[in-house]
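Morning!

This is the sequence you dropped in the shared folder:
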Amino acid sequence: MENSPLESWRTRTVAQQPMWPDARELTEVTDWLGTAPPLVFAAECDALRDRLAAVARGDAVLLQGGDCAETFDGLTADAIRGKLRTLLQMAVVLTHATALPVVKIGRLAGQYAKPRSSPVERRAGVELPSYRGDAVNGTAFTAEARRPAPWRLKRMYESSATTLNLVRALTMGGFAGLSQVHAWNRGFVATSDAGARYEAIADEIDRSIAFMRACGVDTSELSTAEFFVGHEGLLLDYEAALTRTEPDTGRAYATSGHLLWIGERTRDPDGAHVEYFSRIANPIAVKLGPGATPDTVLSLIDRLDPRREPGRLTFVVRAGADRVRDVLPTLVEKVRAEEALVCWVSDPMHGNTTTAPSGHKTRDFAAVLDEVRGFVEVHRALGTHPGGVHVELTGDDVTECVGGGNAVLAENLHHRYETACDPRLNHAQSLDLAFLLAEMYR
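The structure's back. Tokens below.
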């Protein structure tokens, strides 16, 4: 068993794990998880791997988005429906602009744990463990709330199952219909302060739908959508407990989500996270910050994708708007020289976080857009494929990021600042990004 994904990672240095105070309770919870039904299935993970292979070849585009950190209290049908609706709207715009399939992945059904820059938080001379996501502890600044509690892992599993059930019902039950999604976009264009700029694209989609109907295509048949979920595979006790081996193939899968990723703080090629991820068959991703070197990236490919299989590995670049044009070209060229066909995706959120005068963490929509633009420009210059975007967003009208077509001002951040961790694009800003990205891809 020491070479299995359940155990081999335990021999490596494990970063960003909570200090669970009750080892016996942790064992009880992980034993329960070890016998629980899988949240996703091997065939679904294999299907996503095939779709990502198309992205790697330049034959598709990836769109991934959702909460920075899901919360147990935020698990409502309206919230899930809002995020799904936003992603479907974005996908229709990108599909039309690129004339390529859009692979849709939600940051959903498992994004309950967060890495932190410091293990402790200090307020007014009081020091407590940092909030690490609802999977670990609570947001309230009290000793009781901040105590890591293993029962939360079971709650994460149950909440993820609830989310997946609703997502599957919505995407297969007519909610994702093309005509309906485009009608939502039409409503956005009509009410957006920047709507006139997007009118041409909306008109083109209108004509495309009319053309299909004129040719006898029943657009009501386009009422379902293929949709996947993913999260950062941070808590290895949880991921290992939900690992299942397929009896026919002997391949091990993380059944907590279709796509898991390794974060910027846990991507040490010799660390426990890379060791665990190297032994599962899911498609996997790695976040790359501005400090990522070509040697580190090549080491990650050797550890995680030694057979150079398209669709296996995605690199999500989070360099910052001021660095992406300098950092990205060397990485892309080195990977191409290795003949590794990976997916390149832009995360324009994490490298552009600032603090407003009010003390709120925020992101400027202009900087987010500029990082995406730089990402696309680099790939265009190198003749490689800008594979897509990975963004933190919500379907609600929150005020967490400044700017956008219906501009959120810094002095208004406090109105609806609801995130549990990092600031998210609201519904309108997300659609702004989709229409502007459509212009870039065209």
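Headline: The chain has 13 helices and 14 strands.

More detail when I'm at my desk.
O.
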